[in-house]
């Protein structure tokens, strides 16, 4: 199948790195295919039902350092492709990925599998599971 715009979800993990490698291979096989690497910044709530958590000093700086290194790695992986870019999204990861894919006419979503296991996935949920269930385009999950 020929894809015109591939969206690769990337968070710096090994599964997402494998997925990005696969997306680069697919996009590189057809000249003119566009590849967008999407990283979602997700800020969990630090307060629940009147109880709060104060992030340790330097927390935000460490997150920014990690994101800078990770996004540089993604840019290096896609450097050989003429029509590739990185997008930084915000919000719930699954919802942000789905919204971007629909709003930007992506015709394939590529993402890694966390491999949580049946019980953990049932209890915690899974970004990849949610995307597979809700996407209106094909989704490739790379293990």
The CATH homologous superfamily of the domain at 1-39 and 83-120 and 127-143 is termed HUPs
Major beta-sheet overview: 5 strands, parallel
Structural class: alpha/beta
Strand content is 15-25%
- The CATH class name of the domain at 1-39 and 83-120 and 127-143 reads Alpha Beta
| pLDDT < 50 stretches | none
Tertiary shape: globular
Order of secondary-structure elements: EHEEEHEHEHHE
Give me the Rg, rounded.
16 Å
- How far do the termini sit from each other? 21 Å
What's the total number of strands? 7
Q: Mean of residue pLDDT? A: 88
The CATH architecture name of the domain at 1-39 and 83-120 and 127-143 reads 3-Layer(aba) Sandwich
- As laid out across the biggest beta sheet, the strand order is 5-2-1-6-7
* Distinct helical segment count: 5
Provide the CATH topology of the domain at 1-39 and 83-120 and 127-143.
Rossmann fold
**Proportion of helical residues:** 40-55%
Structural commentary:
With 143 residues, the chain is of the alpha/beta class. It has five helices and seven strands. The longest helix is centred in the middle third of the chain and has 20 residues, at 59-78. The chain is globular. This is Universal stress protein. Keywords: Cytoplasm. Residues 3-143 form the UspA domain.
Would you spell out the secondary-structure blueprint of this structure?
Blueprint: E1 5-9, H1 14-28, E2 34-41, E3 47-48, E4 51-52, H2 59-78, E5 84-90, H3 93-103, E6 108-112, H4 118-124, H5 127-134, E7 139-142
Parallel strand pairs: 1-2, 1-6, 2-5, 6-7
Antiparallel strand pairs: 3-4
């Amino acid at each position: 199948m020929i894809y015109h715009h591939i969206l690769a979800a990337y968070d710096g993990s090994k599964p997402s790195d494998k997925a990005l490698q696969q997306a680069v291979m697919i996009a590189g096989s057809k000249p003119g295919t566009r590849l967008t690497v999407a990283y979602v910044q997700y800020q969990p709530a630090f307060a629940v039902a009147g109880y709060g958590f104060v992030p340790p000093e330097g927390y935000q700086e460490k997150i920014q350092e990690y994101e800078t290194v990770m996004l540089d790695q993604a840019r290096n992986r896609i450097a050989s492709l003429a029509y590739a870019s990185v997008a930084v999204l915000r919000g719930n990861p699954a919802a942000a990925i789905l919204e971007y894919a629909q709003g930007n006419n992506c015709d394939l979503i590529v993402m890694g599998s966390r491999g949580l296991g049946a019980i953990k996935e049932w209890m915690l949920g899974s970004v990849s599971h949610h995307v597979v269930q809700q996407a209106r385009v094909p989704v490739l999950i790379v293990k």
